[in-house]
Design a protein that fits this description.
By secondary structure, the protein is an all-alpha fold. It has helices at residues 7-30, 52-66, 83-106.
């Protein structure tokens, strides 16, 4: 039996992860913070060197770049603890956002009223 990969999902995850890590680096540099190597997904966000203000800036920048704010949902929830948690949160929000956009694009247009 062959493995079936969903390449668009894999590409989306790579893209979101790359964007998150890139923005983390930018925010750190702009705030004079030194990031540790972000190769270990299990690194705690508290150990990245980014303080709460930097994380707030990061979230705002990611909303601009990715078009999603996973913290703005009505569900609420716990703040991610590790880098992996943080990336997964954005991957999930981005994936759900893309699915919504596709379903809206594919939906039948609303019936139009005929003018008299």
């Amino acid at each position: 039996m062959r493995n079936q990969w969903n390449f668009s999902e894999v590409n989306m995850q790579i893209s979101v992860r790359t964007t998150v890590l890139s923005e983390m680096g930018e925010v750190a540099a702009q705030n004079g913070k030194a990031l540790p190597p972000l190769t270990d997904d299990n690194i705690a966000l508290a150990h990245t060197g980014l303080d709460s203000l930097c994380l707030a800036v990061l979230v705002a920048r990611l909303e601009d770049r990715l078009g999603v704010d996973p913290f703005g949902s009505a569900e609420g929830g716990d703040f991610p603890v590790t880098l992996a948690d943080f990336v997964r949160l954005y991957e999930k929000a981005f994936s759900e956002s893309e699915a919504t956009r596709v379903s809206i694009r594919n939906a039948d247009p609303a019936p139009t009223r005929q003018s008299r």
